[in-house]
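Troubleshooting: if your tokenizer reports a length mismatch, compare your output against this known-good record of 370 residues.
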Amino acid sequence: MQRPSRRHGPPFRADHVGSLLRPAALRAARLRHAQGLIDRETLRIIEDREIEAVIRRQEDVGLELATDGEFRRASWQFDFLRDLRGVETQTAERGIQFKGIEAPRRALGVNGRLDFVNHPMLDHFRFLKERSRVTAKLSIPSPAMLHFRERDRISIDEYPDIDEFFDDLARTYRKALGEFYEAGCRYLQLDDTTWGYLCSDEERTRLRQRGEDPDRLPAVYARVVNQAICNRPHDLVVTTHVCRGNFRSSWITEGGYEPIAEVLFTATDYDGYFLEYDSVRAGGFEPLRFLPAGNKKVVLGLVSSKLGTLECRDSICGRIKQAAEFVALDQLCLSPQCGFASTEEGNILAEQEQWSKLEMIVEIARQVWQ
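Known-good structure output:
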């Protein structure tokens, strides 16, 4: 069913993925809390103060949205997923392998029936919503993440039938969307590395070696996503960010969007797609031809969140023009290619470099879509 027109709503012409570099005071407080030097309430007060400041900063640079920078999280994905009922933290033999670096060792397992009950991020969002003069945006991991990353840690006793797991996963996310909506959320993003893996020849080979079919998985994940976001209110915009890995300015996967583009754009019911286009690792704009005409938008991640060097404005405008050869300009937006701090360690650039990039995105968007 065609969703109502969102011409002036999210995703915005100038947007960003969600996470922001943690200020020094917040990093110090989190370290002191981990060392047992301050209690949880003291840390919360510092988090509140820094989040209020970062909301104002986003508004000051001209953005029409604000996130909490994910300041209360250590990881963009684990912190949300671990607080679902039925999910537990487990010991990982090794961290996720990025190019030249290993992330902290984190793993999750599904040891019970999935549900969304008393999730702490509801209060986190309410805090953001109450203090934002612009649209409050929430970013959480896609339901596909709990399967793709942790598929060997799903209890066979609880879920002997994987289709039953997928049904429960989708139901849990439908419940989450409903509760976030009741808390005032109208702009929700499901971050997802699974599609990025499915773009990579190297990772597709690894999947085949594990006995999985990389040509089948896109349809499986599209079905789960659609079941998760179906029947949402018309004024709840749901987008996704196709991530290729983001830890200390490194990445995991490479490869153009051609293997997934048709399913991603035509078979998932997202309102918008944040795509990483900051380097040759992402290939060309040709896969955008699969985006249906209408209300769906592609947010071009042409500005790197991994490097501090400010991009050339004329070059960014030229690349937007190139993308518009495959999809209507009115269906395009601009953002950094990923978050600035998908984990609390953050990427290797300065806070002022981060804000300069967001300011530039706002200015380019005004120039291109005035």
